[in-house]
């Protein structure tokens, strides 16, 4: 009996396009799933009947989990729905260290006690140690009333049923603890995060959870940062000319970065296993875009091969799709180098965190009037922006990054090549 599943790390069911009982054809859209960065239609790989929905709208499913069950014939629908009930994430699963024993009506001469029936109907759950004790003292564990979570039978329940006095525990230590000075008690971990009255806990959205995972993963990479000031008077003048043709500053910076990366392929490289380089054949510039519920990086693929105007058009399309959560995975996860620009917010400098799977990320600050001295010692005022690049030090060294930034600065200082 085939199951519908998704290939992402985790996905949230936005809506079911089909309903239980609908006949499906291979390749037909069945459900809309919110992945890490976008909403995607999920198609069925089989013909059949949507017999049961396992994961409902608004619920989240881990990678590889079945979200719906298909039946080949109407006769299999009842079986599929029974299976879906057993797989339903709504039922609280027993803890990992516990195992469950299912008792049939024939095995249980007396009605199930109310606490157990309310928690786990038709099931008896016991810890492995409780089972061992029951076997050792010849106690019928199926007849015991569990006092643990979800009606779980604990070792204490078995000892009580067998008439054995409970084994002494750390009660003496607990009783003696108040006599000792309060300072002797080690502080609990939770005490370092006191609850603030009126505070509200808001769970991560799918996108925020993805960003969190990526940021934690990036901590395992040894990085270093290099800053470089660049005069932007020529770039600003060019921007005024091409702005009327729908060219954005983001497109200008992305094009300049792509041209520089062609000359310094190591900065466009990746270290995937800690033992080797991966030189990427394409220069794909990912550009950070702020969303209401997170951050996404649409990718300008082959940015070095596109002219400035086509690049700007492509960028607008990507941003529109990102806002609508319609980006396809290859449109946000294929970047080889990332550009993050906070200059439009007036930020003059900042450091960016290296995205997983990339060798470097460039942080661009605002262009501001700055007093600059020339070689003869004369002072002039020029618009200048500070660029900071964070790089993977396993494959990119200081000299590599300095050479890349020099090339990038030459392009910005003489930007005519950007329009060729």
TrEMBL record:
GO biological process: pyruvate decarboxylation to acetyl-CoA
Keywords: Acyltransferase, Lipoyl, Transferase, Transit peptide
Disordered as annotated region, ranges: 80-116
Region forming the signal peptide: none
UniProt domain Peripheral subunit-binding (PSBD): residue ranges: 125-162
Cellular component GO terms, alphabetical: chloroplast envelope; chloroplast thylakoid; pyruvate dehydrogenase complex
UniProt name for this protein: Dihydrolipoamide acetyltransferase component of pyruvate dehydrogenase complex
Organism field: Salvia splendens
């Amino acid at each position: 009996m085939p199951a519908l599943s998704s290939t992402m790390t985790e996905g949230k069911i936005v809506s079911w396009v089909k309903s239980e009982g609908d006949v499906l054809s291979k390749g037909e859209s069945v459900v809309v799933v919110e992945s890490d960065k976008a909403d995607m239609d999920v198609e069925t790989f089989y013909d059949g009947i949507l017999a049961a929905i396992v994961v409902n709208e608004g619920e989240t499913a881990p990678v590889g989990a079945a979200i719906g069950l298909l039946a080949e014939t109407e006769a299999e629908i009842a079986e599929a729905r029974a299976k879906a009930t057993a797989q339903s994430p709504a039922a609280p699963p027993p803890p990992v260290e516990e195992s469950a024993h299912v008792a049939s009506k024939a095995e249980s001469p007396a009605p199930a006690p109310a606490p157990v029936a309310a928690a786990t109907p038709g099931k008896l759950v016991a810890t492995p140690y409780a089972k061992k004790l029951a076997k050792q003292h010849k106690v019928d564990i199926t007849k015991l009333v569990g006092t643990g979570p979800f009606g779980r039978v604990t070792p204490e329940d078995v000892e009580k049923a067998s008439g054995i006095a409970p084994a002494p525990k750390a009660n003496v230590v607990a009783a003696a603890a108040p006599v000792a000075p309060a300072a002797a008690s080690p502080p609990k971990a939770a005490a370092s995060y006191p609850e603030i009255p009126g505070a509200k806990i808001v769970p991560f959205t799918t996108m925020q959870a993805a960003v969190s995972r990526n940021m934690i993963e990036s901590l395992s990479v040894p990085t270093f940062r290099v800053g470089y000031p660049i005069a932007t008077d020529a770039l600003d003048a060019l921007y005024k000319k091409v702005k009327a043709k729908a060219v954005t500053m983001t497109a200008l910076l992305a094009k300049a970065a792509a041209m520089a990366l062609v000359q310094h392929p190591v900065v466009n490289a990746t270290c995937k296993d800690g033992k080797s380089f991966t030189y990427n054949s394409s220069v794909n510039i990912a550009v950070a875009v702020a969303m209401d519920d997170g951050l996404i990086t649409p990718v300008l693929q082959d940015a070095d091969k596109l002219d400035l105007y086509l690049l700007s058009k492509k960028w607008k399309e990507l941003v529109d799709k990102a806002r609508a959560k319609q980006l396809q995975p290859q449109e946000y996860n294929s970047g080889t180098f990332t550009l993050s620009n906070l200059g439009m917010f007036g930020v003059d400098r900042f450091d960016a965190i290296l995205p997983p799977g990339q060798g470097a990320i460039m942080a661009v600050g605002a262009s501001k009037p700055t007093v600059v001295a020339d070689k003869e010692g004369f002072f002039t005022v020029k618009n200048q922006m500070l660029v900071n690049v964070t790089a993977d030090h396993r494959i990119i060294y200081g000299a590599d990054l300095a050479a890349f930034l020099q090339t990038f600065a030459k392009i910005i200082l003489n930007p005519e090549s950007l329009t060729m």
